[in-house]
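A reminder before we start the practical. When you read a complex entry, don't treat the lines as separate problems. The point of joint prediction is that each chain is placed relative to the others, so the output describes one connected object in space. Small molecules and nucleic acid strands, if listed, are placed in the same frame. In the example below there are two entries. Take a minute to note the order of the lines before looking further.
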Amino acid sequence: EIVLTQSPGTLSLSPGERATLSCRASQSVSSSYLAWYQQKPGQAPRLLIYGASSRATGIPDRFSGSGSGTDFTLTIGRLEPEDFAVYYCQQYGSSPPRYSFGQGTKLEIK
Amino acid sequence: QVQLQESGPGLVKPSETLSLTCTVSGGSISTYYWGWIRQPPGKGLEWIGFFYYSGSTNYTPSLKSRVTISGDTSKNQFSLRLSSVTAADTAVYYCARQVVVGASPGLDYWGQGTLVTVSS
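Here is the predicted structure of the whole assembly.
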């Protein structure tokens, strides 16, 4: 089973700054199968990035994903107040089909 | 616009069976995969399993012996049953749709979630 480890656990930044969130897999993951989600308090997660680097419908272009193999990154180019939330990476395994999530990174206002 | 809505008891006694239903509107469950994910209070996300209208299912190994996901295309609903629950099964339960773009899957539509507490 592939384990996803996200870092840092909490990231404190100010609006306007750039955020870099990391997701490391315990073994190599196909870039096609890596996604990122945003979750605000009391809300369901929202799909941000799929296929490691493709933005989901309606996601602003300040959100970008990159990476391959075991190391993936979510970058938020210029933080807006509404971006402060918890972010999860997710991996899809095809044999057998299953999902696993990282433990999350909390992005908080400094 | 696809919408998902979870429903079911908010309180379940230990050792009993948790049963939830997800009603889908704005789209048919006869396309796509549909799944359940849960989140214990203050913790992260845990995928429970998938359902496809043909009857195909996949479950997370840690819950496989206790979980059943099934669907009713006539009602455009799918359901989760989790047997022999304990306090560790207390969580917000979400239903969601899996979309595949190219070769890349993702969960693009989610229900609002429903809190299920296991307590006597």
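Discuss with your neighbour: The two ends of chain B are 39 Å apart (CA to CA). What might explain this?
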